[in-house]
Amino acid sequence: MRWGLGVVLLLMVAPVARGTDSSPPPLPEAPFRFSVLMDQWRPLPEPSDVLRHPGTITHDDTIQRVTLQEAIAIALENNPGVAAQRLEPTRLEADVLAAQAKFDPLLGGQFGWSEANIPNASSLAGTTTTVTRERQYDTSLAKLFRTGTQLRIDFLNPRTTSNASYVQLSPQYAPELQFSLVQPLLRDFGWDFSYLVVRVTEKLATAGLYQYEADLSDFVLEVIDAYWNVVGARENVEVRRESLQLAERTVQENEARVRVGLLAPVAVLEAQAQAKARETDVIVAENLLKTSRLRLGQLAFFRPNGTVLPRMLEPSEVGQPEGIHIDEDAALATALAERPEILASANTVEARQYDERVASNQLLPRFDIVGSYGLFGLSGTNQTGAPRCFDLDGDPSTPPVCVQPAAPSAFTGSEGRAYERLGSGDYDAYNVGLRVEIPIGNAQARAEQSRSRVALDQAELRHRQLLSTVALEVRDASADVQDSQKAIETSRVARELAQENLRNQEKRHDVGMATTKDLLDFQTQLTQARFTEVEARVRHEVAVARWRRAQGQLLSQYKIVVENPKNATPWFAKF
């Protein structure tokens, strides 16, 4: 099965829809068999471009305003970490193909030529030196079937010439067509049993696919958190600046009152000290805003001009807290059904079940049916000639020994005639038998079965632990949303009250009924109340995103669809 993974981002952004394709690349096509021939002569690979350090650090000083949905789309498209995660399903796809390769037919061939010149001590050869020349070109085809059956076909094509007198045909053609079969009956037996190893890899690939979806959800949540942190830091800067302006106005007012004798000079010092403290708060808030912007820009890693440092993204949204109805039981049921981590864990458990089944089967002894069948052909040219005589002892008085040439063979003919006799089926051979192997201790099989059983138990226990963890995450996220919703309302009321208190205190200060310290304290309270309100709104936005992440619905909320098309099994792995 070829695993593909499509991640289609349909992020609707105003005023038009924008689509971003974040699908992993397809499995790269392997190069042509002989195209890599020259690479083996190269001592080192070409250096990677990523290892070349830039000579100049270039910047993209453009600040691009984006909505949250646009920021997510840009980050998914450009972040190198996401791109690396996107390649993991592709690698797992290659693992499945590698597991299926055991069913790939293997075509082999052997071609050779040989010559032998051997001194001969036998008078039967009719020559003192036997010269034999042989040409061999054989082919073979082997295939493992999903039933565990191993089939092999060999086609042998020898051609032999010899000057020995007892060889009737020279040259001689003796083709053979042989079929051999091994069928397990105990170990490795069962319809589709040998394919279980592939199914293990498929389940692990599916688990990897869901884990990729989980990692993608975590990254989207990270972008959302960074986006709203920028919004919160930006509004915090405004709050701190307004607080500084209040303190500076108080300094000016107190200086005017001191000049006309309404206040003592110490009131000016109090206001100036508070103004400097608030100026420090502005510096800290501005630095926090800068780091928040850097984090968002680095996550998005948007470099349209190819600069070393990415472009800065500026949020265009200020946040409109939405009311969320919390049904904790319904949320938990959704999480248990849709959380990609749970689906990944479930597929891992199934893979370990297949592993345990394979390992248990190996405890059986090997009991196989083995058989073979062969067809034969023969032809050649008869060796004829006068008798050959030899003086064996060197005594002239002893008559020489004469060897008559071989009698004519009934299998004379051309090379094509040998193949005709092969195809006739008149000359064949077969054998059938049983092969038994019984390991005495069977230690290897027992160890593998125990190990697979432990791995299955571990996977099941981790799955139960994951269910517990997800349930806790859903309940925590639900509580955070409910708490943040209440915090928004209470912080708003607190800010309004702080504003009213400050107005009243300013009136009292104007008529001398409140000290400068009282006025500055109420300004500080207003600043803190406004900051708390900003923090509550930002926290609520992030809490809602975490709540959706806990249910496994964060990607669907932003129209990010992780597709899992199952492509056809390669032809050689179908039988």
Note down, in words, how this protein is organized.
The protein is of the alpha+beta class and 575 residues long. 49% of the residues lie in helices and 20% in strands. It has helices at 68-78, 80-86, 88-100, 196-259, 266-300, 328-338, 340-361, 415-424, 443-510, 516-551, 554-557; strands at 2-3, 6-12, 17-21, 63-66, 106-119, 129-144, 150-156, 158-162, 169-173, 176-184, 312-315, 366-376, 379-382, 388-390, 401-403, 428-437, 560-563, 566-567. The strands form five sheets. Strands 5, 6, 7, 8, 9, 10, 12, 13 and 16 form a nine-stranded antiparallel beta sheet that branches. The chain has a three-stranded antiparallel beta sheet with strand order 3-2-17. Strand 6 (129-144) and strand 7 (150-156) form a beta hairpin. Helix 1 packs across helix 4 (196-259), helix 4 (196-259) packs antiparallel against helix 5 (266-300) and helix 4 runs antiparallel to helix 7. The longest helix has 68 residues, at 443-510.
Could you give a short description of this structure?
The protein is an alpha+beta fold and 575 residues long. 49% of the residues lie in helices and 20% in strands. The longest helix has 68 residues, at 443-510.
Identify the notable features of this structure and list them briefly.
9-stranded antiparallel sheet; alpha+beta; 3-stranded antiparallel sheet
